[in-house]
Design a protein that fits this description.
Layout lengths: L8 E5 L6 H8 L19 E7 L4 E9 L8 E9 L8 H15 L4 E7 L3 H6 L3 E9 L3 E9 L12 H4 L4
The structure holds coenzyme A.
Coenzyme A binds next to helix 1, strand 4, helix 2, strand 5 and helix 3.
Protein name: GNAT family N-acetyltransferase
Keywords: Transferase
InterPro entries: Acyl_CoA_acyltransferase (IPR016181), GNAT_dom (IPR000182), NAT_camello-type (IPR050769)
């Protein structure tokens, strides 16, 4: 059974530094907070989004970077999706993903792709991603597989997102 859904969250587009804490804690506990910046993080059209509860606590983060897929398609790479362990299965990741898909779709669309941990595959499948190719063992992330979907249309789940609030209007 799913945990209680979070009805009211605030999605904010933020500077990359605001994502480092959750990135490190959820995805790279063996690194320091200063080591979780990656290429493309500071590109002008990269979007970093956080999910904030009404009380102020930041419980989720994700990033999209304009980057061709490994198969040569123009589009966007989804990276660093992380939801605090105490707030999983409450819809936080789905809100986040919908906002990032909408952002990429509004900026030219194309293919949205990611290297997904095997444990996260059902989460991405739920949002319309499909596996491409065979899994491999990533040194840092463990068993991983590439996934993709079109970025050109919304999942319909981002309706709570005020684009002005996210700074998605150019
Ligand atoms: C993957 C992750 C971001 C999902 O975030 P989340 O907030 O828990 O996801 P949601 O609650 O929005 O889930 C949306 C849907 O995805 C699917 N889903 C999510 N987690 C799942 C899981 N562990 N097993 C099966 N399905 C899952 C379900 O269909 C879920 O809908 P439901 O709860 O109504 O059944 C989160 O589990 C996480 O941070 N994991 C650790 C880090 C990680 O692996 N990040 C991804 C790196 S590639």
């Amino acid at each position: 059974m799913s945990a209680e859904r979070i009805a009211d969250v605030r999605l904010e587009r933020v500077a990359v530094e605001e994502t480092f804490g959750l990135r490190q804690r959820v995805l790279r506990p063996s690194l320091t907070v200063g080591e979780v910046e990656t290429p493309g993080d500071r590109n002008a059209d990269t979007a970093h989004v956080i999910v904030r509860l009404l009380g102020g606590e930041v419980v989720g983060t994700g990033t999209v970077i304009r980057q061709e897929s490994p198969w040569g398609e123009a589009g966007w790479r989804l990276r660093w999706m992380a939801v605090d362990v105490d707030h999983r299965r409450r819809g936080v990741g789905a809100h986040l993903l919908a906002a990032l898909i909408e952002y990429a779709g509004a900026r030219g669309g194309g293919i949205l792709w990611c290297n997904a941990r095997l444990l996260a595959v059902p989460f991405y499948e739920r949002a319309g991603f499909v596996v491409r190719g065979q899994p491999w063992d990533d040194r840092e992330a463990g068993s991983t597989v590439a996934m993709r979907r079109e970025a050109s249309h919304s999942t319909g789940q981002a309706r709570i997102v005020a684009r002005e609030q996210l700074g998605f209007r150019s």
